[in-house]
Predict the structure.
Amino acid sequence: MHFAFTDEQAMIAETAKAFFAEQATTERTRAAMAASGIDEALWQAFTAELGLAGVAIPEDQGGVGLGMIELAILAEEAGRHVAALPLLASVGLAIPAILAGGSAEQKARLLPRLAAGELVASFAEATPDAAASDGALMGAALYVPHGARADLFVVAVSDGMFLVERDAPGISIAALTSMDQTRPYARLDFDAVAAEGLTDPAAALAAAHATGALAIAADALGGAQACLDRTVDYAQERIQFGRAIGSFQAVKHRLADMMVVVEQARSAVYWAACAIDEGSDEAAFAVHAAKAFACDTYMHCAGEMIQLHGGIGFTWEHDAHLYFKRARSNANLLGTPDWHRERIATLTGLDDAA
């Protein structure tokens, strides 16, 4: 099968590439890391100038009305620059949950504001002992992406899915120390917090998991590509024994291996995006495969980037470590690669065969 972007998708890809290359600089990313974890100016430009926070929201609900391929394009370009944005939390997790499981009134009230960037939302899976009774939520949620900055939370508990506002009485938000400071986490504690239930929690949870896993996979693809590109550039500039290290056969082989796995990850990511858009029976399989393969690829390429940069690559101040930390974060969010491979084994009947 031959896959190619449409003219509109190619235009979005070029626009996103230029936007993030110009604005998601290392200096701005590191400044955001020292603050809230969000480059607020970049987020406003992304939502107001590009208008792409609502990329997968229907036009009649304030969005752009595009699909998962376009979302993957944006996530890939953001990942290429380790952009300090709540793209995963708000666009990849919370918005799909509201779209799939919210009532007509909830969608009309929230989606236009989320698309415009007026609200930042996040998604939280509560601890097993959390519960909601008579519209009051008790318990806690750990490792909520951009939770210290979000205005609205979509909270999954064992008996439903609920909307919780940041300023609701009884909620306590504690920022956590995270390895990846471009995507900081928070802990939420609920003490009889007013919670508004979604009408279809099962659909909301499934949509959040599928779209979130795709967004992480696309982010990993962009990061892996950046690791390869930056390492190739360095290999052409670094002189050792009177020659550029990129001319050494051993280095060439390692760069070639990186390129092969990046291209394989690209195929997996966009296959998953197409499968979701088309409502294919293979969508679940494709998403698991993309998440596992792209995250493994990112980890491999980030490690090779550090190794092939030599001594400078081992310093914390080098950008290689921004990618390495994001790669570790991606690999653990919404299931490790091993967990997704187990799901693939179950879907294909390998568990039964064993």
Observations:
- The first strand starts at residue 121 and ends at 125.
- The mean pLDDT is 93.
- Residues 130 and 139 are 4 Å apart (CA to CA).
- Strands lie at 121-125, 131-133, 136-145, 152-157, 160-165, 171-175, 185-194, 196-197, 239-240, 243-244.
